[in-house]
Amino acid sequence: MHHRVVIVGGGTAGITVAARLRRAGVDDVAVIEPSGVHWYQPLWTLVGAGVSALERTRRAESSVVPQGVRWVQDAVSELDPEERCVVTRSGSRIAYDVLVLCPGLELAWDRVSGLVEAMATPFASSNYTPELAPKTAELTRRFRGGQALFTAPGTPVKCPGAPQKAAYLASDHWRRAGVLGTSTVTFATGAGGLFGVPEFAAPLKAVVERYGIDTRFGHELVAVDPDGRSACFSRPGGEGGASETVEIGYDLLHAVPPQRAPSFVRSSPLGGPEPFGWVPVDRHQLRHVAYPDVFSLGDVCDAPTSKTGAAIRRQAPVVVANVLATLAGQDDLPARYDGYAACPFTTARGRLVLAEFDYSLAPHPTIPLIDTQRERRDLWYLKRFGLPAFYWHVLLAGWG
Q1: Among the options 85, 102, 301, 343, which is catalytic?
Q2: Are 111 and 254 in the same domain?
Q3: Which CB contacts under 8 angstroms, 24+ apart, belong to 24-27?
Q4: Residue 177 and residue 183: Cα distance in Å, rounded?
Q5: Where a domain ends, among 203, 227, 258?
Q6: Active site includes 159?
Q7: 102 an active-site residue?
Q8: Of 85, 102, 159, 232, which residue is the catalytic one?
């Protein structure tokens, strides 16, 4: 079996690239994707807030695969860039001229002791899976005061603003319900601050102060005791000393697991160093640093920007242009990615700050005449209604 272009992954990146390649006239494209369900994950934050229904985030994978693209409904077990082929779990060997690697990432629950067990209790949840996001809404509604703990790794995760959004939306609900005053809300993250772009960190700090959230930076979650309802964090010691351990109890826990490349990527020559294995690419061309016939985009690549759907929107046309040039035998690649990404911070029900930035970590606004650095109601409606419609009907169709 052979195809001119093989795309590993049928999520946002894979379907967008496939659609654009078809529109560019490439008629031999295959997408390898095991799941029969395609998820619009950015809405899981609103599912966890009880604002949106989970069903709105799900469609059949068959409905989004572009016409004329072959869908191989199988999982990848091996990548062999020397032989230019992909091996699937069923044993098929699929050869390629160009490989586009975008299988997303893997939630590494096992890297935090007790975290899986905690998710099975009636006190913990996470917006990072479709099974648990509705539970977050249920726990938020049931909460009647006490210690609410929200955690985030200091290492790369998809939609790095999502852990904060969960804390803000829950706090806003508790404020409206009259229980915020009897609650202690803590946001503990392994990162060194709220956000790396100062222009957006300032309004987020004001949101934290409005809700009275206790922020703990440099706190990496390492273990959870689901029976004792406590979380253990590691934080750097002072003056270069040994790391210290901090324990925080909870009545409600929203945890974000560490994340990494899928195992078949990490174990292949195309993966980067452990423990994360992100695919190493030229950050502008999005081509693999060692294999010129391999490109990668989306959550799995190591481009130093946030892992968001907005980043994929800008990465996809770059990858397609450079794949077309590679297929044509050109040595010089024409397109460059500037690191653009965006994170819509839902700061309250009906309020949103839209952070747009690039590799320079400077604001990169794309909506004219609107100050996206302050909380806005119109941006909330964009997040809740406009962006999902754009996603399903424009981006995945290869237009956006």
Answers
A1: 343
A2: yes
A3: 24/320, 24/324, 26/324, 26/327, 27/68
A4: 12
A5: 258
A6: yes
A7: no
A8: 159
